[in-house]
């Protein structure tokens, strides 16, 4: 499909959520003539994220949604599937796996006859404990049930794409995304957000001892750009979307101090999590070649842009 065609008919699931709302508003801006529909049940979304949205909204639970009944024979150019139970601390294995996997299966079944392009959110969590940059061909090693559900989604996506070579299904492994419209998430919101809030309130930023854990912090504007590029991808595949850099929590505190014009020392606390990713970094080789993805916001630039948005 060509994303230059303005009269696109697009669905964004999870469009009231963090990444979904940023994507939806950029789609609206980029394709002002497009028909947009958001599907969300507000479990991890908020209507306030869609201020200025001019499209349709379907309030439904995707794990039980009858797509045929809802949309009939309507044809879509692409479905962006970003909805999932995103709280990685939810340990009810049945709910997490059932809702994430069955929602995806229903979308695949709906899209299969028309070969509607699917662009869905996988996750860097599928890699589990890593010590160097993760490549898409690395084996899955999910440390929590959220990551496990994403691994199963990847498995069924690969199988569907292999069975129908004329059907394009793209999985995007978002790394540690931060940026506007995440505050509603509460605890699962990014470290960048939580530390900024602490520092803005005059408190020392609390990080796990001794701040040397490293993350691929990727600004939401970059993940949206990568997701848009998947509209023009020629073949199915699963790709990392990160900044390509691993930065330590200590470095993050330094960057925040500069942006907020503060001078806080970190307050080091014990890490209560048994399965904690001490290192994440995206290898972007495949995303660059298949999607032409090139992140524009290193941590310094992304945090500066975000703080401007948060605090003006």
Model description:
Helix 5 packs across helix 7 (249-260). The chain has a domain at 9-178 and 220-244 and 281-295: NAD(P)-binding Rossmann-like Domain (Rossmann fold, 3-Layer(aba) Sandwich), CATH 3.40.50.720. The strands form four sheets. Strands 3-2-1-4-5-6-11 form a seven-stranded parallel beta sheet, with helices on both faces. Strands 7-10 form a two-stranded parallel ribbon. The protein is α/β, with parallel strands linked by helices and 312 residues long. It contains nine helices and 13 strands. The mean pLDDT is 94. The relative contact order is 0.14.
What order do the helices and strands come in, and which of them pair?
Layout: E1 9-13, H1 18-30, E2 35-39, E3 56-58, H2 67-71, E4 78-81, H3 93-111, E5 117-123, H4 145-163, E6 169-174, E7 176-178, H5 191-200, E8 206-208, E9 214-215, E10 217-219, H6 220-229, E11 237-241, E12 247-248, H7 249-260, E13 267-269, H8 285-291, H9 299-311
Parallel strand pairs: 1-2, 1-4, 2-3, 4-5, 5-6, 6-11, 7-10, 8-13
Antiparallel strand pairs: 9-12
Helix pairs in contact: 1-6, 3-4, 5-7, 7-9
């Amino acid at each position: 499909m060509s994303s230059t065609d303005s009269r696109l008919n697009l669905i964004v699931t999870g469009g009231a959520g963090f990444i979904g709302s940023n994507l939806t508003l950029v789609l609206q801006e980029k394709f002002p003539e497009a028909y947009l529909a958001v599907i969300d049940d507000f479990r991890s979304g908020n209507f306030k994220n869609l201020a200025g949205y001019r499209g349709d909204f379907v309030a439904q639970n995707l794990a039980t949604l009858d797509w045929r009944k809802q949309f009939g024979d309507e044809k879509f150019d692409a479905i962006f599937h970003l909805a999932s139970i995103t709280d990685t601390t939810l340990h009810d294995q049945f709910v997490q796996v059932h809702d994430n996997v069955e929602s995806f299966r229903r979308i695949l079944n709906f899209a299969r006859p028309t070969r509607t392009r699917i662009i869905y959110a996988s996750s860097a969590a599928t890699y589990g404990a890593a010590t160097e940059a993760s490549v898409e061909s690395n084996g899955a090693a999910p440390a929590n049930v959220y990551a496990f559900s994403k691994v199963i989604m990847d498995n069924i996506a690969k199988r569907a794409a292999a069975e129908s070579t004329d059907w394009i299904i793209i999985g995007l492994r978002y790394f540690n995304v931060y940026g506007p419209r995440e505050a509603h998430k509460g605890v699962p919101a990014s470290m960048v957000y939580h530390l900024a809030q602490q520092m803005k309130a005059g408190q020392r930023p609390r990080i796990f001892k001794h701040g040397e854990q490293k993350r691929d912090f990727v600004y939401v504007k970059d993940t949206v750009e990568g997701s848009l590029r998947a509209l023009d991808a020629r073949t199915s595949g699963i790709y990392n979307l990160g900044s390509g850099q691993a930065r330590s929590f200590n470095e993050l505190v330094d960057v925040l101090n500069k942006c907020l014009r503060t001078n806080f020392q970190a307050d080091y606390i014990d890490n209560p999590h048994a399965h904690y990713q001490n290192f994440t970094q995206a290898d972007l080789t495949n995303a660059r070649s298949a999607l032409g993805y090139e992140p524009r916001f290193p941590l310094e630039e992304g945090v500066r842009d975000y703080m401007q948005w948060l605090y003006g």
